[in-house]
Amino acid sequence: MIPVLTIASIGLYLRRRFKVDPKMVSSMMFNVFSPALTFYALYSRDISGGEFLRMYGATLVLLWIVAGTSFFILRLQNAQGAERAATLLATFAFNGGNFGLSIVSFAFGEEALSWAVIAFVAGSTTAYTLGVYTASNGRASIKASLLNVLRTPPIYALVAAFALKGLGINELPPAMDRSIKLLADASIPLMIILLGLQLGELGTLTRLRLVFTGTTIRLLLAPLIGIVIASLFGLTGDARTAFIVQAGMPTAVMTIVLATEFDTDRDLALNLIMATTLISPITLSIIIYLLQNGII
Length: 296
Known about the structure:
Blueprint: H1 2-18, H2 22-43, H3 49-76, H4 81-92, H5 96-108, H6 110-135, H7 142-147, H8 153-166, H9 174-199, H10 208-232, H11 237-247, H12 254-261, H13 266-292
Helix pairs in contact: 1-9, 2-6, 2-8, 2-9, 3-4, 3-6, 3-10, 4-6, 4-10, 4-13, 5-6, 5-9, 5-11, 6-11, 6-12, 10-11, 10-13, 12-13
């Protein structure tokens, strides 16, 4: 965790001192660096279609169970309308990109990173489908929500990687291979810098009851559910490790974008991102320790 937090603090300093706009960096990450990392991580590793589907499917099941559980808990708390939508969204939309991939890479290495990328892509597709439907309070049609997947560049990188491997093309031209690798290698430190830039925009915590509910579900309940799902789907080794770590990630910054787009409770979404991000170094350190020592 220390290397990630150290690099993130640089991004935080850049935001506070030089007013660096995270939107430009985020756009570069989303459209260039994340697809490059997705493609290279999957293309350069020997992951079969069956293994991919297990990891992808496990992530989707995890997020839907978390969403369903959150919806039930929020109903019990009489949360209504925009605040329920914002809290619900924050519990299943996890920061598997600039936080998750960085943590997995530093703590468990390149093999685990390849599996973490699959969870990240599955999380992105969920954010652009179920996330859109949730943020709109049902105003967006199911068809329109599903079509949002086409706006996710890592999906195209994933399809390209498996298509080339399926065609038996196991080596790219050296210039192309080197270019993609350079972009992929640069993506992890840039993701952490982006995390720091985004943290620089956060303010003071409010709405503590709903923030407590959302934070508890995202950082504690989700990884516990993840341990069970990993066993049910037969995930082992690096795949299981990456899956459980990704399950315990804080709320994705994407929730602010969706909350703003669909006029959901943006302030509450911002508070949930801040709370989960600030507390997650503690919970993730415990999860990583338990995994590294074979306790879970």
